[in-house]
């Protein structure tokens, strides 16, 4: 609230002297030097209309610190201007040089704003107050006026700034589950794949050589073991594990080797004998 | 393959070829040829299924197709050894040996 003003007198002791200002005054001038506004400041009420500065305007603030009783100029030990943004809570403290005679002159050039000026937004004025501290006098705090200045540039973005945000959640995309084709197509395809068997059996029915000796005791065990191998592979397909197949197959292979040796040597004997 | 083209017919070469084959090839070789034709047809059918319909159980296709091809190669080599016309090429290998190798490899 603009009407609110604070004159805080923190009485350090009963005998502490009191400071006051004489002829406090501010001047707003444009960059070309023409005065835009020049008003005396009231110590009791802050200025009713806020002081507004354009981009290159200059604000000059002059006052003299005097002892209230004697009227002599005093050089306080500490003199500060405080710029406070009520909305953001940011504040900036700017020391003000005061001469031996208590005279002070502060200049705020917006073309070269001091570092102590807090960052400003477009809609919130800065509350400007004067803080004076002295070891021989009571401290003094005066709310002077509200200051409207152009919004500051946004803070420069740090090059690594983008790394300090949570990344978007990772969504894994998987290849869709492969599907079997529709049942009719599967049936047709099975028929097509099985059709060569019909061709095979048909052709064999025509040209099968007479297998005369297959059932003879020397050859038949060999045929039997070969058949057993086929059955073992079917069994593997249906149920067995690889280790079992290898062990069974190993045993079966021994038997097959003996049976095959027997059968083939028998056939060989017959062939040689026939010749 | 084996059948010689002894009668070059001008009109129908294929027919002549077939006649020569069926007339001059022994039943044993025809028996093996039938098996070769079967393996070829079966492999083609599986390959077409894989290409045209789906390769979903791809390991099943690999197993079926590669066993077809492998068996075809083995059977074709058996046929070339059994063929009486190639007897001179395989003099030192006995027919029993082919059979042993064939059964063992299969």
From TrEMBL, chain A:
**Membrane spanning stretches:** 185-207, 219-238, 244-264
Annotated compartments: Endoplasmic reticulum membrane
Question: How does this chain sit within the bilayer?
Answer: Multi-pass membrane protein
Specify the Ribophorin II third domain's residue ranges.
46-145
Q: Domain Ribophorin II C-terminal spans what residues?
A: 174-271
Q: What is its main location?
A: endoplasmic reticulum
Classification via Pfam families: Ribophorin_II_3rd, Ribophorin_II_C
Pathway assignment: Protein modification; protein glycosylation
Keywords from the UniProt entry:
Endoplasmic reticulum, Membrane, Signal, Transmembrane, Transmembrane helix
Q: Tell me which family the UniProt entry assigns to this protein.
A: Belongs to the SWP1 family.
Function description: Subunit of the oligosaccharyl transferase (OST) complex that catalyzes the initial transfer of a defined glycan (Glc(3)Man(9)GlcNAc(2) in eukaryotes) from the lipid carrier dolichol-pyrophosphate to an asparagine residue within an Asn-X-Ser/Thr consensus motif in nascent polypeptide chains, the first step in protein N-glycosylation. N-glycosylation occurs cotranslationally and the complex associates with the Sec61 complex at the channel-forming translocon complex that mediates protein translocation across the endoplasmic reticulum (ER). All subunits are required for a maximal enzyme activity.
Q: What is this protein called?
A: Ribophorin II
Q: Which organism is it from?
A: Asterophora parasitica
Automatic annotation (TrEMBL), chain B:
The biological pathway it contributes to is: Protein modification; protein glycosylation
Cite the entry's keywords alphabetically.
Endoplasmic reticulum, Membrane, Transmembrane, Transmembrane helix
Superkingdom of source? Eukaryota
- Where is the protein found, in the record's own terms? Endoplasmic reticulum membrane
Annotated Gene Ontology cellular components are:
oligosaccharyltransferase complex
Membrane topology per the entry is:
Multi-pass membrane protein
Q: Which GO terms describe its biological process?
A: protein N-linked glycosylation
Give me the segments passing through the membrane.
34-54
What would be one Pfam family of this protein? Answer: DAD
Task of the protein: Subunit of the oligosaccharyl transferase (OST) complex that catalyzes the initial transfer of a defined glycan (Glc(3)Man(9)GlcNAc(2) in eukaryotes) from the lipid carrier dolichol-pyrophosphate to an asparagine residue within an Asn-X-Ser/Thr consensus motif in nascent polypeptide chains, the first step in protein N-glycosylation. N-glycosylation occurs cotranslationally and the complex associates with the Sec61 complex at the channel-forming translocon complex that mediates protein translocation across the endoplasmic reticulum (ER). All subunits are required for a maximal enzyme activity.
Entry's family note: Belongs to the DAD/OST2 family.
Subunit and interaction comment: Component of the oligosaccharyltransferase (OST) complex.
**In its UniProt entry, what is this protein called?**
Dolichyl-diphosphooligosaccharide--protein glycosyltransferase subunit OST2
Q: What organism is this sequence from?
A: Asterophora parasitica
Classification lineage: Eukaryota, Fungi, Dikarya, Basidiomycota, Agaricomycotina
């Amino acid at each position: 609230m603009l009407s609110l003003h604070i004159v805080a007198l923190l009485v350090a002791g009963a005998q502490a002297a009191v400071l006051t200002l004489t002829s406090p005054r501010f001047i707003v001038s444009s960059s070309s030097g023409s005065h835009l506004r020049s008003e005396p400041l009231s110590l009791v009420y802050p200025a009713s209309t806020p002081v507004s500065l354009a981009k290159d305007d200059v604000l000059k603030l002059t006052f003299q610190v005097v002892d209230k009783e004697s009227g002599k100029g005093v050089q306080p030990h500490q003199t500060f201007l405080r710029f406070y943004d009520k909305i953001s809570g940011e504040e900036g403290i700017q020391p003000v040089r005061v001469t031996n005679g208590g005279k002070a002159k502060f200049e705020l050039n917006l073309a070269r704003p001091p570092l102590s000026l807090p960052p400003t937004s477009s809609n919130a004025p800065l509350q400007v107050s004067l803080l004076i501290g002295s070891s021989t006098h009571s401290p003094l705090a005066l709310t002077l006026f509200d200051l409207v200045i152009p919004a500051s540039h946004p803070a420069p973005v740090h090059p690594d700034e983008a790394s300090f945000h949570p990344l978007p959640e990772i969504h894994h995309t998987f290849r869709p589950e492969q599907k079997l084709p529709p049942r009719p197509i599967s049936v047709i395809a099975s028929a097509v794949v099985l059709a060569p068997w019909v061709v095979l059996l048909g052709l064999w029915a025509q040209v099968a050589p007479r297998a005369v000796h297959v059932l003879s005791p020397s050859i038949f065990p060999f045929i039997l073991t070969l058949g057993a191998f086929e059955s073992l592979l079917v069994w593997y397909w249906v149920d067995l594990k690889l280790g079992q197949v290898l062990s069974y197959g190993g045993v079966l292979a021994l038997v097959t080797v003996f049976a095959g040796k027997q059968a083939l040597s028998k056939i060989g004997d017959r062939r040689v004998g026939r010749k | 393959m084996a059948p010689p083209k002894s009668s070059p017919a001008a009109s129908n070469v294929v027919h002549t070829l077939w006649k020569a084959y069926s007339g001059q090839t022994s039943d044993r070789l025809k028996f093996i040829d039938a098996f070769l034709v079967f393996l070829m047809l079966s492999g083609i059918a599986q390959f077409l299924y894989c290409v045209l319909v789906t390769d979903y159980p791809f390991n099943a296709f690999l197993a079926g197709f590669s066993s077809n091809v492998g068996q075809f190669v083995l059977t074709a080599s058996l046929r070339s050894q059994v063929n009486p016309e190639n007897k001179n090429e395989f003099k030192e290998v006995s027919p029993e040996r082919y059979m042993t190798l064939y059964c063992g490899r299969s």
